[in-house]
Amino acid sequence: MNLSLLILLPLITAIAVMFCKGxxxxxxxxxxxxxxxxxxxxxxxxxxxxxxAAGNGAQFLFDQNYTWFDPLHIHYHIGIDGISLSMILLxxxxxxxxxxxxxAQERLNKEFFFLLLFLSAGAYGYFISLDLFTLFFFLELxxxxxxxxxxxxxxxxxxxxxxxxxxxxxxxxxLVFVGLLGLYFNTNLNGxxxxxxxxxxxxxxxxxxQNLFFPFAFVGFGVFAALFPFHTWVPDGHxxxxxxxxxxxxxxxxxxxxxxxxxxxxxxxxxAAHHYSPLIVLLSTVAIIYGAxxxxxxxxxKYINAYSSVSHCGFVLxxxxxxxxxxxxxxxxxxxxx
Length: 338
What we know:
This protein is mostly helical and 338 residues long.
């Protein structure tokens, strides 16, 4: 299976949308493109099951690795395991649902559906990336479209909400980038630094280095996952976002953060994860309780969705912070079920 199709399908669909004439064509092309993504995701699931049933015990399947920028050892390295596959299926469902719920979107319909499809391309690329720089690149692809979707098609204090969301997510991205650079400059792969997630996972990085850079990575990704007290963009973003964008924020964007906390911070810096585990559990517990009580006080459905998402994502981070196989399985299940 060529995983690059997960990125190409939404990009080709987005470009095709811009050449459509009339709302009917835009909706039809968008629906066909997102349906193709969903079908490909299920085909990927079937092929994954077949490989595992045949005894393929590789950590990541359908691996592809191409040099992107050799001087810094940046590679277009992609592959999937069960966690990333579940996130791919989740993304496919949310995107096609977003297109259907936006069926009556008439104002700047080409641009709206283009940004929605562009968002999905960034999410797919993020979930299949096995190179940290590539993963960060796709993470950033998703910030600007969200800003535009809320700022242009939102409601209420949409400019304020869009700006707050963009600034907080970019601040989280800056922390993530510091954490990734810390990992990069403390690796030694045949005398060179590396962004390769698989190679870094095989190295035992010094505990002091892990303790130094783990907070940058975990908190940075945690901003995307509504980690308390960096969750304040969620209520404003949800309340002002158009329905499809709100679905994407809850269904996908917050999972980008949870996935990063698990796949990058915890997986690559396990000693530091154990060191900071009590703090993660404490903050997650506060988010669960605070989000639940705040939800019960709301009268607006989008605010109910937003604050309940803070509480639910608290369970995700709690599962990651507890660092047991059962709790991490639960965190992944919660990311999908939420």
